[in-house]
Amino acid sequence: MSRNPAYRIFLTRSALCAILVATPALAALDLRDYDDDLMRDLEKTIKYFEPDITAQNAQAAKEDAEVLLDGFRYTEDYFAKRGKDDAVAISRDGARLVADVVAKVEIGEFEAAAASAREATQVCKSCHEIYKPRLAR
Ligand code: HEC
Asked: What GO MF annotations does this protein's record show (predicted)?
């Protein structure tokens, strides 16, 4: 079988595919239309999120949550359009955690809510580790 030239070409092509798949996702992602302003809003908001929760300021925490949910909806949609399932899953995790915070704030479980808020911060980082260019611009 290995002497069959067609089979050898097949092997070479699958090896090439494996290399292409292993190439960092950044190379394939054009971020020119990405909403950096929204990201900066998220950055500002997430800084107040946990402090608002620990201060038991339910109203402010819910307003923060709205902004963050918007952000995760945006990233989910953006990456879904580009077929990046991992980033879509990360975005959904973020939305789930923020919804969890709101639910806990509503029943006055501020400590548990703060823990979920901290986890939500990690969600931002896990996407950035994969998709945010480190040294760009
Ligand atoms: C699913 C992916 C994803 C999630 C989730 C995500 N980000 Fe980002 N973020 C990116 C990408 C990609 C860039 C780089 C955009 C670019 O280079 O134009 C970025 C850029 C940024 C920037 C830099 C913007 C600038 O000035 O150029 C900030 C700040 C930021 N994100 C904050 C956050 C915060 C805070 C969260 C969580 C609440 C978050 N991001 C969640 C993908 C994500």
From this structure: electron transfer activity; heme binding; iron ion binding
The rounded distance, in Å, linking the Cα atoms of 27 and 25 is: 5
Neighbours of 3 (CB within 10 A): 6
Q: Name every protein residue with a CB atom under 6 angstroms from any ligand 1 atom.
A: 31, 34, 36, 39-40, 42-43, 46, 68, 71, 75, 79, 87, 90-91, 94, 123-124, 127-128, 131-133, 136
CATH code, domain carrying 127: 1.20.120
Its domain, for residue 66, covers 26-131
pLDDT in tens, 8-49: 655 555 554 444 455 455 556 889 999 999 999 999 999 999
Has residue 15 been placed in a domain?
Answer: no
What DSSP string runs through 61-97?
HHHHHHHHHHHHHHHHHHHHHTT-HHHHHHHHHHHHH
Evaluate whether 114 touches 53 at the Cβ level (below 8 Å). yes
Report if residue 117 sits inside a domain.
Answer: yes
| 115-127 pLDDT, tens digit each | 999 999 999 999 9
User: In the chain, how many domains are there?
Assistant: 1
